[in-house]
Amino acid sequence: MGRGGQGEKEEKEVKVYSWNEVREHSGNDKWLVIDGQVYNITDWVRKHPGGSRVISHYAGQDATDAFRAFHNDLKAVQKYLKPIHLGSVKPEEQQVQAIDRDFRELRKTAEKMDLFRPSYAFFFIHLAHIIAFEVLGYLVMKQFGTGWIPYLITLLCCTIVQAQSAWLQHDFGHLSVFKNMFKLDQLLHYFTMGFLKGASPHWWNHMHYQHHAKPNVIDKDPDVRVEALFVIGKQMPVKIAKSKKKSMPYNWQHHYFFIVGPPLLFPVYFQYMLLRHIFTRKLWLDLVVVAMFFARLFILYFPMLGWGVIPFYFTVRCLESHWFTWVAQSNHVPMDVKADEAEPWLKLQMHATCNVERSLFNDWFTGHLNFQIEHHLFPTMPRHNLYKIAPLVKSLCEKHGVSYQVKSLYGAFADIVKTLRHSGELWYSTYKAFHSS
């Protein structure tokens, strides 16, 4: 104060804040902490490449491990941090919890084991087998006509293409293949998600990054914003039951899930949401690649099927939707769903995820998302390396008394229905007690 520019600069550099001060800035005015340093992200959220919501979900909290999890090149992003740096958390309030310290050591171990290095051969072969099924499906119908047998074979091939493209675009979307050459990841993300699948890469990033940042956290993870049709976990059913006098008959949700869940997620809900996202945000590049998907579909199959290409397309989408929904929800729906408690990264991810047993079929069928725990802890780790870090993650969880669940594929699927039934019953009992008068 009163000593000119240099004095003001020095004062700014040594400014310290208490955690209580940081937590106060979690609304319209947003601060967060990375490695003990305080940053004002209020204006930066609108420019953040990962989207405004994913970074806003950590406002008022420690985002150290989330920051490391999402960024491959920490040095490259430092230039974005400097202009928004405010100071640091008071030294006496910077104690790192043992679970955080041990997890960060585990990450260093993974880096020393070279587990973040991708195998380009693996991803090339995966892409090649997708294209092979695409070509096979077309040639079968082209050569043998549209009878039931060739029709069903082509239908199966196209479904495999869509499901496996979903797993591959997931790798490119997480920048886990080309790492610091992120433009190549983005290019192939547009190819796999846009051209092969007919969906918006930007929409996927917007939704999926939020999910990873705060999995199964009410009002933050878009994957659990399902109260219009379902209630899951233990907190959501009670909250919905108390807040609404009229609502869905959630006590029947484990039945109607089979009608409105897997069959309609892709053909109806996702189709609407991604197109809405494209047009409201004016994402013309995304619109072009989606249009190219439909152009390719009609150029290839309209000469053989005529307008029957439309029911063919929606049948593929319906089958793909079943595949994706059962796999994607088996790791999350049966786990804890609750309000944000600003938990350490390891606990946050472990409470929301579980694994499915490893096998050649399970690895292929789930796109290695049977290692959902390791993927959520290290989202940029190439999926072919996830099994290598799994034993170390399990040991760390045992050390800190954190549950590490591994299920059979059938058991994981069955737990979705069991959870829906249990949550529906919890809603019903609370609803009756709260609205009985």
Structure commentary:
This protein has 437 residues and is mainly alpha-helical. Helices cover 61% and strands 4% of the residues. The strands form 2 sheets. The chain has a 4-stranded mixed sheet with strand order 1-4-3-2. A hairpin with a 2-residue loop joins strand 2 and strand 3.
Brief sketch in words of this structure:
With 437 residues, the chain is mainly α.
Oligomer: single chain
Radius of gyration: 24 Å
Distance between the termini: 64 Å
* Strand residues, percent: under 5%
> Which structural category do the helix and sheet elements fall into?
mainly alpha
* Total number of strands: 6
Topology:
Layout: H1 4-13, E1 16-17, H2 19-23, E2 31-34, E3 37-40, H3 52-56, H4 64-70, H5 74-81, E4 85-89, H6 98-112, H7 120-144, H8 148-173, H9 182-196, H10 201-213, H11 235-243, H12 253-260, H13 265-281, H14 284-305, H15 309-330, H16 345-352, E5 355-356, H17 360-366, H18 372-377, H19 386-399, E6 406-407, H20 409-434
Parallel strand pairs: 1-4, 5-6
Antiparallel strand pairs: 2-3, 3-4
